[in-house]
Amino acid sequence: MHKLFWVLVLSISPFSQAQICDLTFAGRILDQHDDSALSHALISIEELNVSTFSDQDGRFSFDHLCLGTYTLSVIHAQCNARSFSIKLKDNSFKTLKLEHHYEELNEVLLSGSSEGLVSAAKEVIDAGTIERSSNQSLGDLVSEVTGVSGFSFGNTVIKPSIHGLHSSRVTIMNNGVRMEDQEWGAEHAPNVDVNLAHSIEIIKNASALQYSGDAIGGFVILKPQRIPIKDTLYGKARLSAQDNGRGGSAHVGLIKSTAMGWYGSVEGTFKKYGDFNAPEYSLSNTGMNSYALAGKLGFNEFKRGFELSYNRLENTVGILRASHLGGAQDQFVAINSPEPLIINDFTYNIDRPKQEVSHQIMSAKAFVKSDKFGRIDLRYDFQKNDRLEYDVRRGSDQNK
Would you give the DSSP letter of residue 15? Predict the structure, then answer.
């Protein structure tokens, strides 16, 4: 009985091996961009611990393989290493593509900027200018550009005006999201924190119509910092102060990214000012309290990626007390007075009249690159604006 068993085993095994281990897997390594061949790429089958190199035409092959699933790793001197899962059922051929243009040079530091075509209709505010003006509002910052001014309703309520057009005639894009907050009224300033932007583009006149048909005045585009795809952790902190208003701002940020493509960041800004001053008197009830918080989490690879982001801004803005008067007689007296009718001692308290604004933006976007369909982008944005405006109480409601 035992002899019969061993005879069956010995006769079946060579037959089985001959049936399933004579397969060939071949392929070609190409550049993702122009389909040019990549020679001298190292191709390895991790489960079998065997390797080969691609020839001048990018071709390679493995012989005497068995049925099964294998992990194929491809390494090239000027590419990111990639892994492919191969399910082998019969002789097969597969084309593999690498990102040939991705290469990091640690020995050379290059710096510069990309501004497209030089045009008088387009201006760019770089990161250095933003850092030096971190305590300013968006309206103050862009007013330094030729043809742009700040449409002001106080020291802290300032909106961009391009060649005299403002509000709904000037569109503001914040991290790819069209802001829907400052066109309701002339006294509504944009709810954005300039510290969260890496650069600001101002597109004026008819050049803005390529982005939107109703942006007759122009476009203001706030662009975030581009996060590198490498293992790194870095942060930033900025403090600023000014004597007029006896306040200042503080901004902190932390950014983390990995070579696998994962990245995340969190940033925050706090601003506080008391009553601002004219040369001879105090502008009562013109202080401001503001804080902003932003965070993002994403994944970025050459062929696919996604990003989730959240941005929140809270503003409490005081309105000059002397600007809210009781009637025509008070207005006549105020016009003829060399000083405001109401002047109080300096304070950080913000009383009526005032604005309390909360603006939130949530964004989700993703992309996929396909050899057949090209690049496919998906995006969803949500924003919520809550605004409360408090007027001066009069008569029997004065002390409520």
Answer: H
Q: How would you label 167-191 residue by residue, b for 16+ Cβ within 10 Å and e otherwise? A: bebbbbbbbbbebebbbeeebbbbb
> Under 8 Å CB-to-CB from 101, ≥6 apart: which residues?
31, 33, 78
d(CA 90, CA 65): 9
Domains of the chain, with CATH numbers? 17-98 (2.60.40.10), 122-397 (2.170.130.10)
Q: Give the pLDDT confidence of 270-306 residue by residue, as tens digits.
A: 999 999 999 989 999 999 999 999 999 999 987 899 9
Please give the structure tokens belonging to residue 14. 């060579």
Alpha-carbon Rg for the chain in angstroms: 32
Both tokens assigned to 377: 């982008």
Task: Outline where the chain has alpha helix (H).
Answer: 2-20, 127-132, 138-142, 328-335
Rounded CA separation 123/112 (Å): 16
Estimate the share of the chain in helix, then strand, then coil, as percent rounded to the nearest 5. 15, 45, 40
Residue 290 and residue 316 in contact, taking contact as beta carbons nearer than 8 Å: yes
Distance from C-alpha of 70 to C-alpha of 24, rounded to nearest angstrom = 13
Tens of pLDDT, residues 159-218: 898 888 888 888 899 999 998 876 667 778 888 999 999 999 998 866 666 666 777 888
Cβ-in-10-Å burial (0-12, 13-18, 19+) of 160 comes to: buried
Distance CA(319)–CA(244), nearest Å, equals: 16
Query: What distances in angstroms separate CA 144 from CA 119, 129, 224, 273, 276, one per listed residue?
Result: 17, 10, 20, 22, 22
For 95-145, what is each residue's pLDDT tens digit?
A: 888 876 555 555 666 666 555 554 557 889 999 999 988 888 898 899 888
